[in-house]
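Objective 1b: paired records.
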Amino acid sequence: MKTGMNWRLASRLSVITLAILVVIVVTLIQQHNAAKVSNGSGLQGTDLGGTPAPIFRLTDQFGNQISLQQFKGKPVVLTFLYTHCPDICSLTAERLHSTMLELGKDARNVGVLAITTDPKGDDVAAALHFSQQHQMTNYWHYLTGTNQQLSPVWASYSVYAQAQQQKINHSMAIFVIDKQGRERVFLNSNDFTPAQLTADLRILLKESA
């Protein structure tokens, strides 16, 4: 008799424990999904809290000096690439091009900055060639510099960039910055979609500077 009762008790406890675990898992999923939307703004991506974006000045594909500060009053898309990347960087560039096409005339009111993660392999000529290949020449500034110039920028955005044989291992990062120069959301450049980024930029374009 006691054995039967103990079995029933153990069975009920197992059911209760399972139910509690389900509730915990569901709660964690909801919290994770909530973190992907920025404080009721409707932005898609991981909320960055609106902290000021670290400033920098680097050289673009035309040899011009470009700073983040000069885009104040415009939303900015900031990413990190290198020109001879065999896969994801080219895909990111193509998705950014699709985003610009989706924005239409509004594209001119958005700044797009791509910072190299390969100071040895990427110079002004390589940056221009890569920009032409992906039809981004007039849509973005592909920024290059020396390792000494770039390393502090990578560090300020918590981006890692490490040479390994013929490849550069680096963070898959897209930062969406608002008109006031504040970091709003983070997207993974490995899986964001043009529709997602376009929607975020349209929201930021409507905000006051």
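Objective 1b, second protein:
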Amino acid sequence: MTRRRFVLAAVVAASLAAVVFTSVRALTWAASSQTIEVTMHHSRFEPSRFVVRRGATVRFVITNTDPIDHELILGDEGVQQRHETGTEPSHGAVPGEVSVPAGMVAETTYTFSRAGVVLIGCHAPGHYTYGMRGAVVVVY
């Protein structure tokens, strides 16, 4: 490996480690289940990044402090795209999909079965494009 590639690989590895480390501080690790509290504020998820263990079932408690309705959709890019172009007026029956009316609190549960990244998005008109999104890093 050339020195240039080695340095590039080291920078990428350090960046990934920093992202994971800074995300971990917001969570407590649990082997099988945990609760994560998310606030919707100014059309953003706070926090917007999480780290969980593969196999964990996470209960999300979502508080919408905005004067407008939002939703929280967990899934890969295909799920996000389907919701971005879809016409479902509300969510709640599917794990990882929940509508949260203005000023209200809602919950959903999601099991992270594979390591990788699971995306979070709100697909109320224009919200995902505006930047109302996040990610869950699922580690072994």
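The two ends are 28 Å apart (CA to CA). The chain is about 25% helix and 40% strand.
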